[in-house]
Write a structure and sequence with these properties.
The protein is α/β, with parallel strands linked by helices and 223 residues long. It has helices at residues 18-29, 61-69, 74-84, 94-97, 172-175, 208-220, and strands at residues 7-11, 38-41, 50-55, 89-92, 100-103, 113-114, 119-125, 136-144, 158-163, 165-169, 178-183, 187-194, 197-200. The chain has six helices and 13 strands. Helix 1 (18-29) crosses helix 6. It is globular.
């Protein structure tokens, strides 16, 4: 792939699940008006040429946050390209959670792990009534309360979730970023969105045709 060409970059920071994400994004990219290559990379330099950036995530919040920060310059590159330059960004599952202020999963001595801080929310354990179980695993319908052209077509669709923690907003300002919820013993944040960045708690790469259509819309989006 030419460095000068617009690119789709999936960030590799040791979180796993990269192969299925790469395959899904490559398949969706091939269906766009201007097909592009998908690059899986742990190099902050590659974000300089990225037109769309994806942060996947599987595992515990703290481990993923540590993995991201272990890459010299990656957090700075993300803030520059996403927050400063306004490039479209998608966080998936723990990748979405890392967009929040903090997460309490495996937090030592009550001190939450710090996230990127793009959403005013904290990632906390899901509490559900019996007979529901945690982790929340399987297909659930989402309810969209947003006119965002990438997100709105998901309203009423079933998508695939695997998670035991979810984002809980910390302020009225944070509540405005909730673009969609799912019902799992009560409302659970399914999508957070603001400006040029979107976080989804579900796995679009595992959500079959609905997920691929969502990925394609994201890749065609110019924020």
């Amino acid at each position: 792939m030419s460095q000068a060409a617009p690119s789709i970059v999936i960030i590799d920071y040791g979180s796993g699940n990269l192969r299925s994400a790469e395959k899904a994004f490559a398949r969706a990219a091939a269906q766009t008006a201007k097909p592009r290559d998908v690059l899986v990379s742990g190099e902050p330099e590659h974000l300089r040429h990225a037109e769309h950036i994806i942060l996947p995530g599987v595992g515990a919040f703290g481990d993923c946050a540590d993995g991201l920060r272990a890459i010299d310059g990656m957090v700075e590159a993300l803030n520059e390209r996403v927050i400063k330059d306004g490039k479209p960004f998608l966080g998936i599952c723990v990748g979405m959670q890392l967009m929040c202020q903090s997460g309490v999963e495996r937090a030592a001595e009550g001190r939450p792990h710090q996230g990127l801080g793009w959403f005013d929310a904290e990632v906390r354990a899901i509490n559900v009534p019996a007979p529901l179980k945690v982790p929340h695993m399987g297909w659930n319908e989402i309810s969209v309360a947003h006119t965002h052209k990438v997100i709105a077509p998901l309203h009423g669709q079933d998508v695939y979730f695997v998670h035991g923690f979810a984002a809980q907003v910390l302020s009225d300002d944070g509540a405005q970023d909730i673009a969609a919820v799912t019902d799992y013993g009560g409302p659970v944040t399914a999508i957070l969105a603001r400006d040029n960045y979107i976080g989804v708690q579900f796995h679009p790469e595992k959500s079959q045709a609905v997920g691929l259509s969502f990925i394609q819309r994201f890749l065609e989006w110019r924020a």
